[in-house]
Amino acid sequence: MSEKETEPTKLDAIVVGAGVAGLYAIYRLRKLGLKVRAYEAGSGVGGTWFWNRYPGCRCDIESMEYSYSFSNELQQEWRWPERYGTQPEILRYINHVADRFDLRRDVQLNTRITSALFDSKTNAWTIKTDNGEVVTAPFCIMATGNLSTPRTPSVPGLKSFKGKVYHTGLWPHEGVDFTGLRVGVIGTGSSGVQLIPHVAKQAKHLYVFQRTANFSLPARNAPLDPEKERKHKAEYPDRRRAAYETPFGIAGYPPPVKSAIEASEEERRRTYAAKWEEGGSINYLYAYTDLLVNKTSNETASEFVREKIRATVKDPRTAELLCPTDHPIGTKRLILDTEYYETYNRDNVALVDIRSAPINEITLDGVRTANVEYALDVIIFATGFDAMTGAMKEIDLRTDKGMTIEEKWANGPRTYLGIMMAGFPNLFMITGPQSPGVKSQMILSCEQHVDWIADCLQHLRDSGLHRIEPEKAAEDAWVQHTNEVADGTLYPLANSWYVGANILGKPRVFMPYVGGVTAYRKKCDEVAAKGYEGFTLAV
Ligand SMILES: Cc1cc2nc3c(=O)[nH]c(=O)nc-3n(C[C@H](O)[C@H](O)[C@H](O)COP(=O)(O)OP(=O)(O)OC[C@H]3O[C@@H](n4cnc5c(N)ncnc54)[C@H](O)[C@@H]3O)c2cc1C
Fold this sequence. Notes:
Structural class: alpha/beta
Bound molecules: flavin-adenine dinucleotide
Radius of gyration: 23 Å
């Protein structure tokens, strides 16, 4: 045993991950007087915005909303240059937050947590790092992210390819120059759609390998209007409060008042056209009350977008391939783009349909589908993440009573409120499965969870208690409720990462809570107010 292993570092709370969630956890837990430290696999803070440096990466919620609310000074000071922040801008902001609140001294970078074990006699978690360090604390907070485990499909021959291979979620810091190169992009989800127009402008030739067409709407990004910024800042505290009273945690969009089928066709077209011009995904889904619950209504919104695609893309065959037909609009992450469909009118861009002719192998020289071999210098995987459960399952997470995360989530995740799991005392998750996290403005959801956890730890301390764990019955009821809510919507119809469909062999379970931020937060607050109803608390 090394000296490090015999002398574990002792903390009050361990945080795993230093993205927006982990950093805010340090801030809040420090205020309770706790000795806290975040362990981060990356060489910098920022999580998503540290790793995803591909060209075109930016947020799809307006930056005045997609930002921390915990400090009014911070939100008044910071200036977002554009409507939607770029990845470098958001990363700059998160680094600013880390410095402004002196958070870095409690972040240990370049450190991956490989295992976590709960000891029920001492009520403490012991974690091990990939550097061999051992750390113990009564509480462990997983701020490991929902979209932090990039996945490359195992295509035969990938290792033999003599060109360069990239994944959008692990983009090189020095950037990539595609000038004069033949590039293949595999995947047309959000990252692919953001990246493709940028690569097309540089590459000699770009092949886009598409299995599933996804709906994308124009972002209508622009420099932030100073008058709009001034007004928003003047209303900030009210707007932040109002955000919690909305389904997606985003204020400023008038809620819909009627069903799409109650409107005449002409009225619908006018509404959708206005939303299309304005840009934004929530805005579009807010056109009518029932777009996410009624297939007929949804089809009117879906078809409007298909018509726009057909009107934009000149080659009719390409246009048809780009028209999504296998899921209702909004049931997969609705993408925002800048000139995505227009890109297919360029002479150097070709769309390859790998639904009808799948990729058989990657060769020394490129990609071979059932029909053709495409010679390439570069392959970019825009194939996403092992979403929502991947990062937690990569850790050897277990208790001395024999519980393991592998077994616990073998048939899909099970949690109480997406915050804790029965069988894993004193282990908290931020925006875990069965919480609205990925279906909301995520910084708001991270703040809500961290605040709830901080209040819970304060309560335990005030009550002389040292252990908290959900009751199995409460967890079962929450999982059932989450499923019932999802089954009342169109979401489960889509083969999305919300159901794990992008990962071969992953159990098909709908993972987010889609009852909305308002209902969810109310439930969390009620649980706390009733003395942590559904949890067992002990000394
Ligand atoms: C390309 C992209 C665009 C997005 N755009 C939006 C948007 O517009 N709006 C929105 O609301 N959300 C968006 N998201 C979701 C985004 O993930 C969240 O908004 C937010 O950044 C999540 O923060 P987090 O701290 O919870 O997780 P992350 O930012 O994922 O951070 C988790 C951190 O944990 C670290 N980690 C994981 N496992 C370990 C381990 N075992 N040991 C040590 N460290 C570990 C990771 O390295 C990572 O840095 C986007 C996601 C992606 C990928």
